[in-house]
Amino acid sequence: MSTTYEPGAAPAGFIPLCVPVIQGNEWTYVKDCLDTGWVSSVGNYVDKFEAQVAQAAGTPYAVAVATGTAALHIALLVAGVEADDEVLISTLTFIAPANAIRYCGAHPIFVDAEPRYWQMDVQRVADFLQEDCTFINGEVRNKATGRRVKAIVPVDILGHPVDMQPLLALAEQYHLVIVEDSTESLGATYYQKPVGSLSHIACYSFNGNKLITTGGGGMIVTHNAAWAKRAKYLTTQAKDDPLEYEHGEVGYNYRLTNIQAALGCAQMEQLPEYLAAKRRIAATYNEALGTMPGITGFPQAPYAESARWMYTLLIDDSITGIHSRDVLHLLEKERIQTRPLWQPLHLSKAFPGAQVLGGQVAEKLNQQGLSLPCSVNLSSDNQETVIDAVIRCIQAVAQPVR
Ligand SMILES: *Cc1c(COP(=O)(O)O)cnc(C)c1O
């Protein structure tokens, strides 16, 4: 595994994987917070940032929270996930959404990826619900465990949406809630509709490596007014009376500060520009590398316009003769930072004994996947350097042509 790059600490000549770009009104808005003293968890920027993200997500409501992980935790609670429930979730993902399921006392059931676009395999969800569950009195129960299955967490990995239409049909048929993890896919669309607007409730992240950053932060978006209100309530310690310190239940302090929101407001102004950059970078890599034997470029489904958040390609070592991890180490020597895809969560020590539907596709993607430098300010010179280095790695081991 490559180490995480610390923003601002990049030595000259080093090409980092994906770093924040601060070039708009960030200084102005943060200074405004400092000048006015509105630095903490309420303020104009929190409200403004919520409105901006709601607009981008195509939902009437947005609730700002401290992290994407906190957003997922609260969204699952609001959606009615309880202790001992089960939740279907992509196995090929960053670990945060599966952790959030455990914070609720619920259990993940891991779903394999489909091979074309690398997203949750919706057919596996359908087969599981049909064959391995009972559906009685509006409740799904897993025959293997007897537990109630309550929700589905599709994760739009790498900026690309999951195939939502069939998933929504299943959710309706089986009375399940969809809590979408769109933390990597802000700005992506599914049949022209923004990700996050299609599910019952969805979550974004504004961590440092995401498309838009607040340093750290998250957002819950939904069409459901009552759910939005409850999310705000739970993230503010379930406070009933602002004067008397009366609380209706055990809540959380998951608020985003006005300073972070100020950063977010400035970043959101640059969203169209950032998306265009990500898409241009992806197109250039795909053109230069995607047609090499044994290389699969970053795919995009006909139903989608991907945010192209994290440019990733597959290297099939049975054809190229070199494994993706060896390419990673060779590029590291050339001061180019790359990284593999996540360990599929059904193999993680964090979830021993968890049920998995398939898993082989995710395992193969984990072995073959390599993410390349794709910061929105990646220069074309630096991108050329990366492309040349990848080509040299692969040609160095290629069989000589006689
Ligand atoms: C980044 C990320 C999160 C969590 O976001 P944080 O803001 O870091 O808590 C959740 N899910 C996925 C898929 C992510 O990539």
Structure description:
The chain has 402 residues and is α/β, with parallel strands linked by helices. Helix content is 37%, strand content 17%. The chain has 13 helices and 18 strands. It has helices at residues 26-36, 44-57, 68-78, 96-103, 122-131, 164-174, 225-235, 258-269, 271-289, 317-320, 324-333, 360-368, 380-397; strands at 61-65, 86-90, 107-111, 133-136, 139-142, 148-153, 177-181, 189-190, 193-194, 201-205, 218-222, 239-241, 246-247, 295-296, 304-305, 312-315, 355-357, 369-371. The strands form four sheets. Strands 1, 2, 3, 4, 5, 6, 7, 10, 11 and 17 form a ten-stranded mixed β-sheet that branches. Strands 9-8-15 form a three-stranded antiparallel β-sheet, with no helix packed on it. The protein has a three-stranded antiparallel β-sheet with strand order 14-16-18. The radius of gyration is 22 Å and the shape is globular. Pyridoxal-5'-phosphate (PLP) is lined by residues 67-69, 93-94, 96-97, 155, 181, 183-184, 205, 207, 216, 218.
- pLDDT < 50 runs, ≥5 residues: 1-9
Portion in beta strands:
15-25%
Distinct ligands: pyridoxal-5'-phosphate
Tally of alpha and pi helices: 13
- Mean pLDDT across every amino acid position: 95
Radius of gyration over C-alpha positions, nearest whole angstrom: 22 Å
Number of strands: 18
**Net shape:** globular
* End-to-end gap: 37 Å
Tell me the structural class.
alpha/beta
